[in-house]
What does this fold into?
Amino acid sequence: MSLIISSPTVYIDNKKIQYSSLSYSKDSIHALSKLAIKSSDMNLKLLDLIKKEVKFYLNHGSTDNVPFFRGYVNSITPTSNGLTIQVLDCMQFLTGEQTQAVKADKNNNFDGMTLGQFLYNYVTKYVNINDKVYIGLDMLNDTNPSKSLTGYRTKDPKTPLEILKKHPVIDNSMVWDNDNSDSTSLPWFLDVEDDGTKSNIMFKKLQSRTKDKIRQAVPFSLDSGLVSYSYKKHQAINTVAISGKENGSETYLRTHDYRTAISATRYSKDVDYPDEARNEAHLIINNSRNNDIELNITVNKGFYLPVGSLIQIKQRSAPIIDGYHNIVGKKINISNNSIKCQLSLNKPKPVLSDYLEPISNLYH
It folds into this structure.
């Protein structure tokens, strides 16, 4: 087996720095990408690094022309033998206490805007100011179908990512384009793409199991790329109660096995009609049944695969992991000339809780 050479490099404010370890993570499709840098370079303590641009080149197997990660310093923690620098991607300017929150009322609102148009307007007005581009807009698109903000009002100011969370877009079409009965919904999410000069935000969707995507799926097995795996099986939801936020209505949906294996959840959502609530409940149960495995794999290839993409695990000796999976999270740790990559697959939480607001469990 050939040895793949890696020479990761990090630049802060266009100056190459020395580090003792690096830890990159994106915990879910909706999470910000993060980079933790540990360094013993005492000279860094003397610099004003907050909000300085950071570029991380993984250089795994070859020299990267585009940063693996680009972000801005968010916090610095001095230690007795150095410091730890926390870096977040450009979406940090769309969330958090330092972000300009906006209010939608009858006088000032986003009527007539889609999510993409709202983000373009917000970034242009509040983020990319004084000739500084923190968030690129060249790749900004809209979801399909698009989501309108017409009629949206708030009592209190909200950050852009809070507004996006209140307006999720789910593709309810079949995940497979053949006779497979899997009807898991495919959520759209906001992600970051680097064009070599800046980070651009754009909407993406988890890749479906179409014939084209299946052919492109990178294969993994214990003989090729898969180092180890672990999994946790969750009990599928079989009872859902949806409460209407405004009218206080209750709609229940149960599967045939609800008496023998109780796993029930209550959600709150703005619904106008019982049929709409039943459709939502059906979607929740389907997602739970089709995404009940939380799978984590350690790999020695596929480091550049983006979150949301489709891979194939070929391991007939382990049927529970054998098959096609979406990458929903990624971690890379670098220290002492070693590099470790972990991929998270099939986590059910981002599919469920990001588009309905849970109130409580019914049977606890």
